[in-house]
Structure formats: C-alpha cells, structure tokens
Amino acid sequence: MLISTLSPIRATRMNRFNSTVPDDEYLADSNVLFYLSDAVTQLLEHKEEYTQFGVIRYFAEYFSSVKNSNHVLFREYNYIRATPHNRASFIRVFWRCYRQIGKNGDLLSMLEYRSLLQLLCPDFPLEILQSAARIVLMDDAIDCLMSFSDFLYTFQLQFYYQEFLDSVLVIYQDLLAGKSPNTVIVPTSTSIEQLPSAAAEENDKEEQQQDGVEPSTLAQCIDAFCDRFKHSHPPRSCMREVLDQFNKVSYYSFLMGLAKHETINQTIGALPSKAELLIDPEMDQELDKLIAQISVSPGSNSSGSAVGGLKEVQKKASPRRNIHHRRKMEVESDGSTEETDSSEN
Predict the structure, then answer these.
(1) Is residue 4 within 8 Å of residue 11, measured between CB atoms?
(2) CA–CA dist 149, 156 (Å, integer)
(3) How far apart are CA 107 and CA 116, in angstroms?
(4) DSSP code string of 131-167
(5) Spacing of C-alpha 63 from chain mean position
(6) Where are the domains positioned within the chain?
(7) Distances (CA, A) of 216 to 1, 157, 249
(8) Distance between alpha carbon 207 and the CA centroid of its chain, in Å?
(9) Which distant-in-sequence residues (6+ apart) come within 8 Å of 217 by Cβ?
(10) Which pLDDT belongs to residue 302?
C-alpha cells in the first residue's frame, strides 16, 4: 500500500517485490517504520477512542489516510516535514484548500500566506515563508504582494528541498567571497540545520554588492555536493538546464528558474502544471454541492447556514476526529478541505 505514496520513479525503484532491493533500504526509503511508529503513538494517545472499533481497522484507516495524503492536516510542523511524502502531501493540501485565491486573482502578502498555512499547520514557521518570498521577489522587499501561482511553486521548491537549498546557499556565498571551487566548503548533512539564519544574514550583505557567480562554477560545486547529499534534491539535469540560461547567476535567480521548471514539479508530484493549476473538477463539484446545501437550508439565514456548513466540513476533514466516526459518516476523503474554497466565495 505505502509504495504508492512515493513518486512513480522512486516507487518503481523501491518496489518491495523487487528482490534486488535490500529490506533495510526499502524500509528506509519508504519510511514505513516512521509511519508505523506514529500510528502506534496516536493509538496510545487516543486508546479509548480508537480501540472500540478494533486495532486492525484503526491501522487500516491510518495507512489509508497516509496513502490518500490527508494525514498531514492539522498535524505539527515536525510531522509534516518528516518525510518527502508528508511534504508533498502538505503542498497538495495547501493548493486544494486555497485554489480559489488563484481563481479570484487575489494578491496576498507573505504574512497573509503564513496565516493560511497556519490554519493547516498551527506551528508552521515564518522562516520558510520568508525564503519563498525572497525567491518570488528576487530578494526585494518581502512584504510585497504575490500571486497565488507564483507563491505556490516557489513555496513548493523551498519546502520540499529545504535542506538542499540551504546548503546551496552556503556554496553560493563561498563563491561570491572569491573562493575557488576546490576550496569551497560543502556543508555536511549534520550542519544543515544550522544554516538558514546565518546564511540568510550573510546573503543579504553579499548580494547587495555582487551580480552573481559563474554558472559553470556553481554547477560544478553543486554536482560534487549531490554525490554525497543524503536528502532529496532536484534532478541534476534540471539544475544544469537552468544554469545554462545565465551568463551570471544569482542565488535567487537560480531558485526561481528551478521553481518554474516543469520537470521538477513533476518529480515532486504534488501540483499540476501551471496551465492546470486552477482546474479541479472534483473540487468544483463538491463546492457546488456545498453551496446548494447552504442555499436551500430552511429555517436559518445565509450566514448561519454557511457557518454550519463550514463546521460540518471541518469535522469531516479533521484527522483529529475519530477515524471511524468519519467513515460512519461515509466521507471519502481525498486530502482536501472544501471549507476553504467555500469560504472564498
């Protein structure tokens, strides 16, 4: 079941029926043990609520929610960033929840996007939003307004490849400082967590005085780094393709090129192409049904009906609610929270 949560390329490589893949490698790459541990933790924390329906059924429901990508709703930040599948699932949930913003053509500030994210993940940090905003605005004033599509694809890149981008920033700064490729200190996996704050401060100072670096030199350093990087990173061919477009490249120009690259978007597998970003017939049908229910609701005014409908959808979508209670209500969740679309109309 869990093999389908991986991207098609990884799923093929890590198929559990492929005898060439060692068991330990499959378990590590598919994160089965992580999800099993979380499932047990959730069961112990809500034992009285879940065990009355049977432990086997609980585990079936839990892994079904993981497969359907609705398991990240309202979970803590450390959980949604814990695996590549969790990150991709959260990106997709954010898109489906707030797609209406893009359809309306609304422009929002970084702090407004953060408020939307915190409705889905209450402790979502500001730093990632700041980094995404710098990509969109090319490190100009990050309090400017951004379109939904521009923000979404840059947020996807920054959130999904966070550790890699933080490391590339350190490499870029070393090159800006005049170090040769042979003396550039490539960050190790253990030092990545310490990079963002110091790197961002240094970058603000350096980029004000520099136009960029040689793309071929940056490509050489990045390629060497990818050889020993343990986290996810964009395909090397895509990064070379983006760098080949520049005579001189800045860090944020490079990232903007990556954010717009359709192959990288397909590799992550969370969002449709930009041409199809605002098209979601299934969501539109659910929204039409909800609006119809609100409009014909007897004995209450429209605002009261809307509030009631919103609360009902929230109860259906929330993973904090009893899993079997949602099933009893015959809800087939696909990872979306329709209430955000309805609230935008």
Answers:
(1) yes
(2) 11
(3) 13
(4) HHHHHHTTTS-TTS-EEHHHHHHHHHHHHHTHHHHHH
(5) 19
(6) 29-68, 77-182+212-281
(7) 42, 22, 10
(8) 27
(9) 175, 181
(10) 40
Quote the CA–CA distance of 35 and 19 in Å, as a whole number: 23
- One-letter amino acid at 87 equals R
68 Cβ contact partners less than 8 Å away, ≥ 6 residues apart: 333, 334, 335
Q: CA-CA distance, 280 to 276, in Å (whole number)?
A: 8
In the chain the beta strands, taken as DSSP E runs, fall at: 107-108, 146-147
- pLDDT tier at 188, thresholds 50, 70, 90: low
SS3 212: coil
Q: Determine the 3-state secondary structure of 184 from DSSP.
A: coil
- Helix, strand, coil percentages (3-state) for the chain, rounded to 5, are 65, 0, 30
| Residue 194: per-residue pLDDT | 47
Distance CA 340, CA 342 (A): 5
3-class secondary structure, 34: helix
User: Beta 146-147 vs 107-108: how paired, if at all?
Assistant: antiparallel
Scan for tokens 């004000």, then name that residue: 208
Quote the CA–CA distance of 131 and 165 in Å, as a whole number. Answer: 10
SS3 292: helix
d(CA 91, CA 336): 11
Q: What is the DSSP string of 245-268?
A: T-SSB-HHHHHHHHHH-HHHHHHH
pLDDT at residue 178, rounded to an integer = 85
Q: Which of 269, 214, 264 has the alpha carbon at shortest distance from 239?
A: 264
- Per-residue model confidence as pLDDT tens digits over 40-86: 999 998 888 877 888 889 899 999 999 999 999 999 999 999 999 99
